[in-house]
Design a protein that fits this description.
- This protein has 18 helices and 24 strands.
- By secondary structure, it is of the alpha/beta class.
- It has three domains: about 270 residues, FAD/NAD(P)-binding domain (3-Layer(bba) Sandwich), CATH 3.50.50.60; about 35 residues, no CATH class; about 240 residues, Glucose Oxidase, domain 3 (2-Layer Sandwich).
- About 55% of the residues are buried.
- It binds flavin-adenine dinucleotide (FAD).
- Flavin-adenine dinucleotide binds next to strand 6, strand 12, helix 13 and helix 18.
């Protein structure tokens, strides 16, 4: 009987998986990339007893202070040793891009220029888009802000694919599985307290101590009409603790929240790389090879992925600011007995698929790459959350970082406090709150804007060699960055420039092509709301003023132009997306399998059909857990079926 055979098979299952590390070139699974998609997945597969090879183009820098100290994420983003720096186009035409205050140009003398009006003869490089090419991927230099996506984000995947395992109700347990919440009462519904992913928050007393931060917080609450709370000086009253509150109307609540982010009991940031380190310490059958840039998935004539080709060497990828064109690395291969899983992130996953002969036939032919599977969606559907900032100047310097100032040759007292107790200003990100708001064009009427605040001047991502000063160095400014969820654009593309795997692909977001008018309106609503906040601060009625975009942007039309010119993003997604059988651009089915190829999956931010959440990180970690379950389930079923066939 089949059912009996399955039972027998399942009981034998434990002995089927290889528990010892396998030889050097052959593994059950090969995972490419160690970010939030690939890192935890590789660990889970190894934990289940399979031999796993995790190939990471960068190195392990997880013990570097810039990756450990929450307040130093900016340093991590500017560190050449960690960065893959892309220069992207927001618009297809250079004229529109030229209005961007963050545009990077190559000057005739070979140096860089950042901003508008570059020296005569400069050429446009693109907008700096920092990614991390290191163990843990971008999770090592991001804010680690932990915000669950809306219910729609998961339900949409279920609806598109007809696979009900993706519904919000069924996805939520993955969050509970991974979370180790450090500040809510144990047992709080919808949260986990024993997972591997620590979630902490900033020390509220530090924010309460700073009168100007308190005023912005009070203004935020007042602007939402929550008058009774707005009078409080208790940060816990002003800003709710739990942005991931388990509540049926969570997606419709406009409110102010404290920032929760990934940090452990000792105040250390905890990234996907930290998770991989744990697995190595535990001696799981996980082999991690650093400095290993995967250049191609090997696919046999039966269209089955059988392994990968990779180059071994430091800084081989040309997005690495230290890369040298003549450093070509050593060619290696590795074999996957079961499957290859690509987790290279939104820019690199489609690049690797294309290099492997999977993608739009036209594009592959252009680069003389043999077409194995004509999959039009690879590198299409690129999208992002749009962001713009409103910067307000205050009468006084913010005192938050004052105790961190130190003389040359001395150690910052904030470092000592952080190192000793895991507390103090360096145990925070500097960001102090989120304000959730619903714009006039919100899809489905659910909150679509998240404003996150910091006592700093932020106009977007600018490279370390920037010539911009002024606002960026000011200590008496506060920025509310408005990030728009569920933006409508699907027109972005990642395409090959050449067939050299070390070359960086062409990345063009084609901003505001689809639904642009509504997306712009949403952001304008956000700017106006930020202004309302700054005008609602008790005790600061006439003493602060806007310095960016500035009071001269005083009409809807001017604000719309500001949004067009200055919007940016850092949550790029969806270039190898999951979709239904009837979706011509679907690259994956709902089980993460690349359509038309056996034993090949994609598990990372590129798999989402639309950019999830407000901040997507937790969504990717949840996706990675789901992928782990799916892959292990398929392995079990395959074994059971084989055993059943024998009987
Ligand atoms: C500056 C910045 C700040 C952010 N802040 C936040 C935040 O606060 N909250 C939030 O929710 N999200 C944030 N994000 C977004 C979030 O970090 C990313 O969406 C997430 O890291 C994507 O995970 P991933 O696994 O898809 O890819 P990645 O994190 O990009 O990881 C991919 C990994 O694969 C490796 N790799 C790529 N190609 C190859 C190859 N061919 N061979 C071998 N290795 C390869 C890379 O080196 C990298 O380590 C931020 C992103 C950026 C860039």
């Amino acid at each position: 009987m089949f059912s009996l055979s399955i039972l027998t098979a399942l009981s034998l299952y434990a002995s089927f998986v290889s528990s010892a590390p396998s030889n050097e070139s052959s593994f059950d699974y090969i995972v490419v990339g160690s970010g939030p998609g690939g890192g935890p997945l590789a660990v889970n597969l190894a934990q289940a007893g399979y031999s796993v090879l995790l190939l990471e183009a960068g190195r392990n820098l997880t013990s570097d202070y810039s990756q450990l100290v929450p307040a130093l994420i900016g340093q991590a983003q500017w560190d050449e040793a960690q960065g893959w720096w892309f220069y992207v186009k927001d618009y297809g035409n250079a004229t529109e891009g030229a209005n961007n205050d963050k545009m990077v140009w190559r000057k005739p003398d070979g140096g860089y220029w950042v901003g508008q009006n570059p020296p005569e003869g400069s050429t446009q490089l693109g907008v700096w888009y920092p990614r991390a090419g290191t163990l843990g991927g971008c999770d090592t230099h991001n804010g680690g802000l932990t915000v669950l996506p809306s219910e729609w984000d998961w339900d949409n995947i279920a609806n598109q694919t007809g696979d009900i395992s993706w519904t919000h109700d069924r996805m939520l347990h993955y969050f509970e599985r991974i979370e180790r919440n450090l500040f809510l009462p144990p047992g709080t519904p919808g949260h986990g307290f024993n997972g591997y992913q620590p979630v902490g928050r900033g020390d509220k007393t530090l924010f309460e101590k700073e009168p100007q931060i308190l005023a912005v917080t009070q203004g935020s609450v007042a602007a939402l009409g929550l008058t009774a709370r707005a009078a409080s000086t208790d940060f816990d009253v002003l800003a709710k603790q739990d942005i991931n509150e388990f509540s049926p109307d969570r997606d419709y609540q406009n409110d102010v929240y404290q920032i929760s982010f990934k940090k452990d009991e000792r105040g250390r940031r905890f990234s996907a790389g930290s998770r991989v380190n744990q697995a190595i310490e535990w001696g799981l059958p996980l082999t991690v090879r650093f400095d290993s840039l995967v250049t191609k998935v090997q696919i046999d004539e039966d269209l089955r992925a059988t392994g990968v080709e990779y180059l071994e060497g430091e800084s081989l990828y040309l997005a690495d600011p230290r890369a040298k064109r003549n450093n070509t690395g050593i060619r290696r291969t590795a074999t996957a007995k079961r499957e290859v899983i690509i987790s290279g992130g939104t820019f690199n996953t489609p690049q690797l698929l294309l290099l492997s002969g999977i993608g739009p036939a036209e594009e592959l032919k252009k680069h003389d790459i043999p077409v194995l599977v004509d999959l039009p969606g690879v590198g299409k559907n690129l999208q992002d959350h749009y962001e713009v900032g409103v910067i307000q100047e205050f009468p006084n310097n913010f005192t938050f970082w004052d105790e961190c100032v130190y003389e040359a040759g001395q150690v910052s007292p904030c470092f000592e406090t952080w190192e000793r107790n895991g507390t103090g200003p360096w145990s925070t990100l500097g960001f102090d709150k989120f304000t959730l708001y619903t714009s006039s064009v919100a899809p489905r009427g659910s909150r679509d804007l998240i404003l996150y605040g910091v006592m700093d001047g932020v106009i977007g991502h600018v490279p370390p060699y920037t010539n911009l000063t002024g606002l960026l160095n000011a200590t008496n400014v506060y920025t509310y960055t408005i990030s728009e969820s569920h933006s409508r654009n699907r027109a972005g593309t990642v395409t090959l420039r050449t067939s050299d795997p070390r070359d960086v692909p062409e990345i063009n977001f084609n901003y505001f092509t689809d639904g642009g008018e509504d997306d712009i309106q949403g952001l304008v609503d956000g700017i106006e709301f930020a202004r309302k906040i700054f005008n609602s601060m008790p005790g600061f009625e006439n003493t602060t003023h806007e310095v960016y975009p500035g009071p001269e942007f005083d009409t809807q039309e001017k604000l719309r132009q500001y949004v067009r010119d200055q919007a940016y993003g850092h949550h790029a997604s969806s270039t190898a997306s999951i979709g239904g059988d009837d979706d011509p651009l679907a690259v994956l089915n709902s089980r993460f399998q690349v359509r038309g190829v056996k034993s090949l999956r994609v598990v990372d931010m590129s798999a989402f059909p639309t950019t999830p959440g407000t901040f997507p990180l937790i969504s990717i970690f949840m996706l990675s857990e789901k992928a782990s379950d799916t892959i292990l389930e398929d392995a079990t079923l395959e074994y059971a079926t084989q055993e059943a066939a024998k009987n």
